[in-house]
Amino acid sequence: MKILQVTAVDFTVKKFLLPLVDELDNKDYEVHIACNVNEIGEDLRNKGYAIKHIPFSRDINVFNHFKSLIKMVTLIRKEKYDIIHSHTPVASLITRLAAKITNVPLNVYTAHGFYFHENMKPFVYKMTYSLEKIWGKYLTDYIFFQSKEDYELALQKKFNKPDRLVHINNGVSGNKFNPLDYDRNIIRRELNVEGKKVILFIGRLVKEKGIRELLAAFEILSSKHSDLALLLVGGGVTGDRDGLSPQAIVDKMSSSVRQDIHLLGLRDDIPKILAASDVFTLPSYREGLPRSIIEAMAMGKPIVATDIRGCREEVFDGFNGYLCRDRDVDSLVSALERLLTNDDKLNDYGKQSRSIFLEEFEEQKVLDRQLRVFENFKINKK
């Protein structure tokens, strides 16, 4: 059984898709991956993954999208895939159309978070909603949903037949993200944050992740509390349209604030960094079902996040953290301060996060829900 996993950029493959790729390989599927191949993709290719280069563009240039469509159709006809499984908005629109043109037997799409959301302008919302519904209804056999809100909306609005809409959730490995495996004190010494209460952000350093608001909030908190540190982990991704430079913002702050802000760049030791932190925060404007919060929950951390789709499926206000208003510095300051000034809540909410993770977001459960669809297809095809 031959399956093609498709996403726009190779960063997404490494960060999000490898557990599924490896699980499929273990189940004797022949797995190929199509994406825009850069350094990460070449590294994965050198490790033995079958990576196909498709130059997906994340802009609105229709000519570029048409070129990607032609290349995808050509690849599918050459390789004769049994299953196409696409991810990320633009890549999935192109791929599902190509799969329909080439009569691929099973055409699956994972909605990591519908592109349309409640904060969009009405015209943009209507346009992107319509695209998702048309593609879901006429060009897709199964839609997997990470966000329960997305799943319930698609079910209500009849994006496809009910049995073709599958809520898979999102998850990470509880073995990899296990707080008992890390010595917090040693890591904090390595990061030079001993004696500090550490706020941690992990994600793309772009405007829509709330970086400006987070830095402004930390500047306010630092003026009131001298025992705080902020760690920013992440970088940009090829095609980001609203990238920014946190360093340029930090450089304008006073030296007393700057010294407690640590820009750590892209890291491969996320569990280790999480172990050193006290609070994880994600002040995004838009999310699907953010894996970074799940990683923090797995490591037993209390969470402060914005009250938006996805985040509010993981963070229960007053139970394992707090929700704040998006694009609102004062609301973010208030939520962070309520945790950072209460050691009992830091401890209790962290324990609740780990408990919720084990119940809802363990990676194997997410993989099994997807494999069930693929295995049923394999049985019925014989």
Q: What does this entry look like structurally?
A:
Helix content is 46%, strand content 17%. By secondary structure, it is of the alpha/beta class. The strands form two sheets. Strands 3-2-1-4-5-6-7 form a seven-stranded parallel β-sheet, with helices on both faces. Strands 10-9-8-11-12-13 form a six-stranded parallel β-sheet, with helices on both faces. Helix 12 crosses helix 14 (343-360). The longest helix has 19 residues, at 363-381.
Q: What's the short version?
A:
This protein is an alpha/beta fold and 382 residues long. Helix content is 46%, strand content 17%.
Biggest sheet: strand arrangement? 3-2-1-4-5-6-7
Total of DSSP H or I helical runs spanning 4+ residues? 15
CATH-defined superfamily of the largest domain: Glycogen Phosphorylase B
Query: What CATH architecture of the largest domain would you give?
Result: 3-Layer(aba) Sandwich
Helix fraction by DSSP (H/I, runs of at least 4): 40-55%
Low-confidence stretches: none
Roughly what fraction of the amino acids lie in strands? 15-25%
Main sheet attributes: strand count, strand direction, barrel closure:
7 strands, parallel
Q: How many domains would you count in the coordinates?
A: 2
Outline: globular
User: The CATH topology of the largest domain, please?
Assistant: Rossmann fold
Give the integer mean of the pLDDT values: 95
Structural class: alpha/beta
Radius of gyration from the alpha-carbon trace, in angstroms: 21 Å
Instruction: Give the N-to-C terminal Cα separation.
Output: 11 Å
Secondary-structure element string: EHEHEHEHEHEHEHEHEHHEHEHEEHHH
Topology, number of strands: 13
CATH class descriptor name of the largest domain: Alpha Beta
